[in-house]
Amino acid sequence: MLRLLLLSVVTLFSLTSLAKSKQEAEGQAKIEIRIPSEHVPDSLFLYYFEKPVFGDRYDNIPDLILQAKRIKDGFVFNLKGINEVGYFSVFTKKSGVVDEFIVWMQLLEKGDLLCLKIPSSKFTQSGAGAVLHKASKIIYEGRGAAKFQCWEAISGAEYLLGASDNGRNLIFDSGGLYIENNYIQRRIKVQSELLNQYKGMISPLVFDLYLIDIYADAGKSLYKHFLYKLFETNNVDSLKSLAHNFGKIVLIDSIISNPAKVISKSYADYIDDRLRLTYAFTKIGNSDVKAFSAITDISSFPTEVQQKILCAYFGDQNVIQKSKNFDSLLNVGFNIVGNSYFKKYISRYSSLMGGSMAFDFNLTDYHGQKVKYSEFKGKYVFIDFWFTGCKWCEVYYRDVLKDIKAKYKDRDIVFITVSIDKSFPAWRKTIEKGHYTSVNDINLYTDGLGEDHPIIKHYNITGYPFPILIDRGGRIYKPGSISDFKSREELEAVIDLLLANKSTSISED
After folding, report:
1. For residues 134 and 320, what is the distance between their CA atoms, to the nearest angstrom?
2. What's residue 37's pLDDT?
3. For residues 316 and 64, what is the distance between their CA atoms, to the nearest angstrom?
4. Contacts (Cβ under 8 Å, ≥6 apart) of 99
5. Other CB atoms within 10 Å distance of the CB of residue 19
6. Average pLDDT of span 197-201
7. Is the dihedral of CA 464, 384, 373, 364 positive or negative?
8. CA angle in degrees (0–180, nearest 5) for 256-294-224
9. pLDDT tens for residues 387-428?
10. Phi-psi region of 139 (alpha: psi -120 to 50; beta: other; left: phi over 0)
């Protein structure tokens, strides 16, 4: 009888292992999500990312989009053909647009059989219904759950160290000198120790990915603190302290495998920041161009890692808005990325290259009427993208556009504003205050879609204000470069040149 029982246990274990091996071999994973019945939506949606570029930003392009219908109080996502490790996010939709993320950029391995239990405390009731409360923890169970428990422990350490007070005063003392063993260095140490405690419970690749996250997040914070201090201080001792300690910031390149660098959501963005801020700190030429040269140096990075970092580089809005070399840099980027996985990332910036076709919009104006781009055919069109609450949008209108619009009111150029505000009545009230535009201007609204509107996606706008100049043939005359339009004098010079010589149009057919 005992032998029979043991045989049954061994058989069951073998079948379970066989099922897991088959699931892993076929690149499958299963995620079940349970939500308290009073908060259950009709559908949930899942994004899967193989090699995300932009960390925790919303700019990553999903490789797989799934929808799951509610079954009682749960949802099931069956993923097939996925890589060894990737990332997933789960969210709700409202009116066809992403509404709330329930899970954001978490690791998923092929072979995972996960059950995510969303506690009632994750939601609060409002007049509009259930609203996600992001501070509440999700309960992870099933095969693969250890990595989530590991990351929750790592994330929690940040708050134990006082994340609510991690300002510059914890990096530099009152005299502006660098503090040894500061908050960020202590955070790296504590989080790394916690990660090591889970080493036997997670795969080596997941271990490396979490290690990157720890160092990348801390490194980006340190670099920015150094940059802030560099620009605000004239104290000689403080500058010497900066120069001495800048090189001490721990680099993670040598201790991380190349596969982890390619998969990681954090690595490319971190390296891009590191290079850009390094050249800004050392004041060696144009930091953007120098960083680009370092990335494109064939000896610097393995091919796929280099391609991913390039995508992160172009994803920085400063490159698009401020670089006078944008077109030539992007062409070099296209040659390096080629037809690789990352082509889809870099291709979306081509809409801002000189000569690219402008977006053929059909938007709502202040009076509720539809306005089409085709109505302005044959004229130069200047578009200013903005939103309520954007300080620099207000400054840009006040110091640059207000007088420019008045000066060229009856000339062969049209000035349009496009707002990503989501409330039509609130947007109208903002216009009436006159801080961002005039009520007499052509003011257009993205129909409540905000940054999800196709015109924003087309130009890949993530920073504001964002000006675009379109020639009379309907093509981009200049990329959305504030460096060309940052002052009234510079913008006037561009417009005067165009109006004085109408035949010099990029897209004149």
Report:
1. 32
2. 66
3. 24
4. 91, 92, 93
5. 12
6. 94
7. positive
8. 70
9. 999 999 999 999 999 999 999 988 999 999 999 998 999 999
10. beta
Length of the chain, in residues: 509
Dist CA 386 CA 396 (whole Å) = 10
The pTM of this model reads 0.77
Alpha-carbon radius of gyration of the chain: 26
Residue 310, token pair as written in the block: 């390039």
**How far is Cα of residue 388 from the mean position of the Cα atoms in its chain?**
21
Could you give the count of Cα atoms lying within 13 Å of 483 in the half-sphere of its Cβ?
13
What DSSP string runs through 336-353?
HHTTSTTHHHHHTTGGGS
Sequence-distant (6+) residues with CB within 8 A of 143 are 20, 111, 112, 113, 114
**What count of Cα atoms within 13 Å lies in the side-chain half-sphere of residue 225?**
26
How far apart are the C-alpha atoms of 495 and 404, rounded to whole Å?
Answer: 10
- Token look-up 């494109």 returns 296
Place of tokens 């087309």: 458
CA 463 to chain centre: 11
3 state SS of 325: coil
Structure tokens at 239: 């500058």
What is the Cα–Cα distance from 66 to 342, expressed in whole angstroms?
22
Exposed/middle/buried for residue 146 (C-beta within 10 Å: 0-12, 13-18, 19+): middle
* DSSP letter string, 257-309: -HHHHHH-SSHHHHHHHHHHHHHHHHT-S-HHHHHHHHHH-TTTS-HHHHHHH
What pLDDT, in 10s, does the model give residues 219-231? 777 777 777 776 6
Domains of the chain (ranges, CATH numbers):
27-133 (2.60.40.1120), 205-352 (no CATH), 362-500 (3.40.30.10)
Place of tokens 């570029």: 53
Indicate the burial class of 171 (C-beta count within 10 angstroms; 0-12, 13-18, 19 or more). Answer: buried
Contact call for residues 55 and 265 (beta carbons, < 8 A):
yes
- In the structure encoding, which two tokens stand for residue 446, read together? 């993205």
